[in-house]
């Protein structure tokens, strides 16, 4: 068993994917080819965003967003302490200050409650991260940002396809709510390509143009550079693969959801673990199926599962405020003790679009065996 089975999905989609790759090889339009433009407009339409700007990976997407919003060295950006490193790394790389806030134990996500204590006159942006497959509670975060004139950059690398429901009933895709939404097409992500890839979403025309300009060496006209930019492109081959896979994204989300329901049903009643909690305001696309293992037994459970041939992963073993690279540049808001406790407790089980009930039964039996 693997943590993520990419092979099974490829075999299922093979005729369409192989044809898409062959088409690009024949056209040899490897850079900024027709599939890149077509994918960008199909992706924007899927997400309900006015614009989608493809780029080289999800980390670049976050960096380009910060650059296009005009943030300057010393500006502060609020980011959750419990997330993948990329969410905060780009803040530090640009000489900005990551202001780390704690997260909600139940959902792993940051909430609006912590924002008041986090802002200073230098605060310019918030990066809510929709971790593991469900949306942060965005309405109060967006309200707070509006009141304090802060930009919102959604890190949607793990939750593409999820819907957030506003208090008035409006349903919006994650990544379509902030000034910029960023996502990743890393192979194991819910919409993964066969290499690296990423994209940014924006509803504002001028901002979308700036994102595209920054991603393209800061040039609107070739060889005339208005601003400092970077070289961040999505390969045409990856775009062609993603066009095929985008047509299946909702079905991928449903398959992951069904697998998650199966785990939750069958793990019910095991004392010593907490299965994932689904928020009332978000659908869940289960990028990860993450347990909390209580009473300090997480590492023992992980080791036991390994002896049974079952992979399980710790996302993430160290909260960002405890990382050596971040200690000297971080402003921590409060104790960040939930982030620390989560890092000590989380364990993610194998999940993907192809996992079969028999495989999940083996995982469940092994967990029961450990606690018996
Ligand atoms: C994967 C991921 C990224 C970065 O994406 P890459 O394509 O690997 O650069 C950023 N944020 C989160 C939360 C991620 O999971």
UniProtKB/TrEMBL annotation:
One of its GO terms (molecular function) is pyridoxal phosphate binding. One of its GO terms (biological process) is polysaccharide biosynthetic process. It comes from the Bacteria. Pfam families: DegT_DnrJ_EryC1 (PF01041). The active site is at residue 189. The modification N6-(pyridoxal phosphate)lysine is found at residue 189. Keywords: Pyridoxal phosphate. CDD domains: AHBA_syn. Belongs to the DegT/DnrJ/EryC1 family. This is Transcriptional regulator. It comes from Candidatus [Bacteroides] periocalifornicus. The lineage of its organism: Bacteria, Pseudomonadati, Bacteroidota.
